[in-house]
Every structure is written in structure tokens, then in C-alpha cells.
């Protein structure tokens, strides 16, 4: 799946809680090229996408 992800990973983290569960990790990707503004959150468990969403700062 990595080949389909944008190369603009961001350090932005929302104030709301991330999905929880054993082995769930989330990655964040900037929607804009300058890495400001909205971001995508993709959460995985064992390499399988379990949650996705758009976040606004």
C-alpha cells in the first residue's frame, strides 16, 4: 500500500484521541504541498488499514 501513499508525511497530530487497540499505529499525511492545513490519518494493524479520516487543525 505504501506505493499509493503521498510522500508528504507530516508531524501534525490532532487533539482528539487516535483509534486504540492492540497493535494499531497511525500515520499522517499532509493534503497540501506546504504541509499546512488539513491532513489524512491512516491507521493500520498488522499492515492492514483499519481506519482512515481527514483532520482539520
Account of the 3D structure:
The termini are far apart. The chain is 0% helix and 39% strand. The radius of gyration is 11 Å and the shape is flat. With 57 residues, the protein is mostly beta strands. The protein has one domain (2-55). The chain contains no helices and three strands.
Give a summary of the structure in a few sentences.
The chain is mainly beta. Helix content is 0%, strand content 39%. It starts with 23 loop residues before the first strand and ends with a strand.
Architecture blueprint of SSEs:
Layout: E1 24-30, E2 39-45, E3 48-55
Antiparallel strand pairs: 1-2, 2-3
Major β-sheet, in short?
Answer: 3 strands, antiparallel
How many β-strand stretches? 3
Secondary-structure content class: mainly beta
The 3D shape can be described as flat
Q: Any idea how many domains?
A: 1
Low-confidence stretches: none
Order of helices and strands: EEE
The helix tally amounts to 0
Mean pLDDT comes to 79
Please state the CA-atom Rg, rounded to the nearest Å: 11 Å
Question: Helix content range of the residues, please?
Answer: under 10%
Our estimate of the beta-strand percent is 35-45%
Give the strand order of the largest sheet, numbering strands 1, 2, ... along the chain. Answer: 1-2-3
